[in-house]
Amino acid sequence: MIKYFSLFFSLIYKNLLKIRKRYRVVISSVLLTLIFLYSTFYQREYYLFFLFIFLVSAYLLTFFAILESINGIEWFMLFLMPVMISLSFYLFYFLFPGRWLTRFPFMVIFGLSIYAILLANNILNTTVEKNIQLYRAGFAINFLLINVVAFLCGVIIYSLYRGPLFIATAVFLLSFVLAYQFVWSVQLGDNFGLGQLLTALIIAVLTTEVAVLASLIPISEVFFGIFLSSFLYFIAGHIYLLLEQKLYPETTREFKIVIFLLLIILFLAVKY
Description:
- The protein is an all-alpha fold.
- The chain folds into 2 domains: about 20-130, no CATH class; about 135-270, no CATH class.
- The protein is built from 10 helices and no strands.
- The protein has helices at about 1-15, 20-40, 45-65, 75-95, 100-130, 135-160, 165-185, 195-215, 220-245, 255-270.
- It is globular and about 60 Å long.
């Protein structure tokens, strides 16, 4: 019986490989976008059901889009961002009224985000085996969407505010998962060592400390999300330069400007 199942799946796999990779990415993006659109017609009471649907469908459709040369920790790392994007966009959507005025832009942005991350994952997956120049493009897209997810989840977390302990726990888990994926994208490989794990832990701890301090300031959910994603961008950017041995005053200027603007925005956003 197992032999027949193995032959059956092997036959399906070979046929799927005949589909060009770019077409597979487009098909996966369109299907996930249609699932997102369908989910928006249901009330919040069904959110657990659709979270499960997004979790399973995002993983399976990401596998369909990549399909080749997935080894070791890539089974987690390459699938993490599509799943996180799907879940964060779905939960964030319910903070707004369910109208076509909000539904259509969300659907478009979600579809483009999924398409972009699936392309980036294919690039990162190829880069594990070959040192190709497209890596920088794939890394940049992945890093951008990490910060988008941080913003969306930051807004969701702050809208569910239950005190500093809740903020600390939620932000730590979120930032650790995102930092874990970020560090892997910097040092690609089939395995993940203790050094990379500790680096992700440092990013998570620093982000959590700053987020807890920000939660004590009377600001809106949107500004908290901006603050969280901006600080993650700041600290992760410095970690990237450090790992790449490019940490110089000239290369950190961009991140210093971001943190300076962030402090100005935070000051202006305080509800006096």
